[in-house]
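Hi all, posting the design record for the shared folder.

TITLE: backbone redesign
STEP: 1 of 1
STRUCTURE INPUT:
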């Protein structure tokens, strides 16, 4: 058991406000189950390969699927990230996450959404769009199909931007509507202009150098194998995988 991951009592206390109330029969130990879920997601294992120390693999999977469908893991990250205290700088970027063949079924359930998987030059992918603070901690996440423009992610994340002075972004976010939207919020854009721009856009290179922190964040998230490679067909479950990884890495 020494090689297995276990949440501490202090970490469980951070989770406690977001856990659903148990009705009727008491739940199997939350600490053991959540520790097992983290172990599976971080190591990219099948649920049936869960170490017996975490209990039944069916219990792990059922808890994971049920709470993912309810959005509990996403709320955990959102609630803990709300304590960020950032007042100066946020960053925006996107990265590709490879979809495994088990997740690439393109069928759509009746009255349901697509799988959010698209074909790019690198194959079948999902794109993760993110906002992080000046320390490289994720504040908000959004997933789309791989071929979707960065502008779509920027538009979706725009409303959740905190009240800060600067936003750092790559050339892919150089759009007049985005710059104007940031200006309306009182946020200064530090975004290089696209090469095909007729009018040169000035930006401060000193704060822009810190933009690598969001790329480091993506790298740390991808250390979790079920984040780097998408095995889940359901986009809501996959987003829960990313949000739970972000919570454990950055907000506990």
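Okay, here is what came back for every position:
SEQUENCE:
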């Amino acid at each position: 058991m020494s090689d297995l991951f276990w949440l501490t009592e202090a970490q469980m206390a951070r989770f406690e406000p977001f856990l659903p109330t148990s009705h009727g029969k008491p739940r199997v130990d939350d600490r053991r189950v959540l520790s097992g879920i983290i172990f599976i997601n971080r190591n990219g294992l099948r649920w049936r390969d869960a170490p017996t120390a975490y209990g039944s693999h069916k219990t792990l999977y059922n808890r994971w699927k049920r709470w993912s469908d309810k959005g509990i893991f996403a709320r955990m990250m959102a609630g803990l990230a709300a304590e960020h205290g950032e007042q100066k700088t946020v960053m925006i970027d996107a990265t590709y996450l490879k979809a495994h063949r088990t997740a690439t079924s393109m069928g759509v359930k009746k009255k349901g959404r697509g799988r959010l998987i698209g074909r790019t030059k690198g194959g079948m992918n999902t794109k993760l769009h993110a906002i992080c603070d000046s320390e490289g901690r994720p504040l908000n996440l959004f997933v789309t199909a791989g071929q979707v423009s960065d502008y779509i992610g920027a538009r979706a994340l725009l409303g959740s931007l905190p009240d800060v002075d600067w936003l750092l972004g790559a050339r892919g976010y150089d759009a007049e509507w985005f710059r104007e939207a940031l200006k309306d919020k009182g946020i200064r854009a530090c975004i290089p202009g696209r090469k095909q721009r007729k009018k040169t856009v000035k930006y401060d290179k000193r704060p822009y150098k810190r933009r690598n922190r969001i790329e480091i964040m993506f790298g740390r998230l991808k250390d979790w194998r079920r984040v780097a490679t998408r095995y889940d067909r359901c986009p809501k479950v996959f987003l829960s995988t990313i949000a739970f990884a972000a919570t454990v890495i950055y907000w506990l």
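COMMENT: The mean pLDDT is 92.
Let me know if anyone wants the other runs.
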